[in-house]
Amino acid sequence: MAQIRKVTLIGAGGNIGPWILKALDDDPDFTVSVLARQSSKSTFPFHVTVHRVDDSYPDEEVLKAFQGQDAVVCSVNMGGVTKQIAFIDLAVKAGVKWFIPAEFGGNKAKAQFGVKTPLYDAKEAIHKHLIEMEKKGLSWTAITTGAFLDWGLSNGFIGFDIEDKRAKIYDSGDEQWTATTLPTIGLAVARAFKKPEEVKNRFIYIYSTRTSQNEILKVFEAVTEKKWDVEHIKFDDEIAAGQELLNQGNRLGIIPLILSHLIRENVGADFTKDVEADNDVLGLPTQNIEDIVKEVLAWPEERIEAARLV
How many whole angstroms separate alpha carbon 62 and alpha carbon 37? Predict the structure, then answer.
């Protein structure tokens, strides 16, 4: 097939979007443009074409932005996941060749073993729709990353409060899981387009490191030269509390449910037990957890602020 060169990115201002944008923009083989909501306050490099559309993503405005593009990458947040079926249909209508959905995260192949969430149900519907659109000439690649490791260490999502030197350890804390840093996720997207036959119409699996909460705690204590306060928590209790928050209309209740798919035992969180990682296919580096922790501790304040959960 013809090489992918023109790429439109949806969600370029979120958590992983800036890193996907950077990886594509840094590679001279790609011309990247951005589809952004009118209300978005995100800014982008001056040379990148930005298509501002109404916040409701009207079909005619999105279709116009997709015209002439080879690929669309979607990195919208949880609130935008369900809009992807419309994006996929419009991509097909515009003649787009490739679609990468906002699948970045847990091992969907084992999602049935974890607690059910609306997010995973929505992703299942998107996956089925992508398979259906293969009949109309659309190719796709979904990227399984595990937890966003540097992001999740910075903002406490994975259980570590850097400022107060406190850790929440779930269950034994020895459960092994795979995770990926934001820069590596960005590289994976760019390099996937250069290996179309190897990644076509399937999930690919990438990671930066394989670790556990207890290993991370040990590294944090060694690097900061401080003994951290540790709270041991049962995942079942945290999930129940999260579900109660969701029942009350508090969307933050989904956080422990999502986390349980990323670091809990027996839900495919360590996908290296089940599949062969695609790091070698894409030429992606791995890192040791000590280097990742040191990088996060050196983050500038503006990056820490951008990663905050609330």
Answer: 10
Per-residue tokens: 263: 């670091």
**164 within some domain:** yes
Task: Tell me if 189 sits within 8 A of 73, measured CB to CB.
Answer: yes
CB-CB contact of 99 with 71 (8 Å): yes
Report the C-alpha gap between 125 and 159 in whole angstroms: 30
The answer to whether residues 165 and 33 belong to one domain is no
Each residue's pLDDT tens digit, 144-159: 999 999 999 999 999 9
Work out the angle between the directed axes of helices 59-66 and 84-94 (0-180°, nearest 10).
50
pLDDT digits (tens, 9 = 90+) for 236-249: 999 999 999 999 99
C-alpha–C-alpha distance, residues 250 and 242, integer Å = 9
Q: Please state the pTM of the whole predicted model.
A: 0.95
Do residues 19 and 186 lie in contact, with contact meaning Cβ atoms separated by under 8 Å? yes
Helices marked H in 205-265 — which ranges?
Answer: 213-224, 235-247, 254-263
Rg (CA), the chain: 19
Instruction: Let me know: does 6 contact 83? Beta carbons within 8 Å.
Output: no
Q: Are residues 78 and 102 in the same domain?
A: yes
For residues 91 and 223, membership in a common domain is answered with no
Q: How many CA atoms lie within 13 A of 254 on its CB side?
A: 11
- What residues pair up with 88 in beta bridges, in sequence order? none
**What DSSP state is assigned to residue 300?**
-
The CATH number given to whatever domain includes residue 167 is 3.90.25
The C-alpha angle with vertex 146 and arms to 143 and 149, in degrees rounded to 5, equals: 120
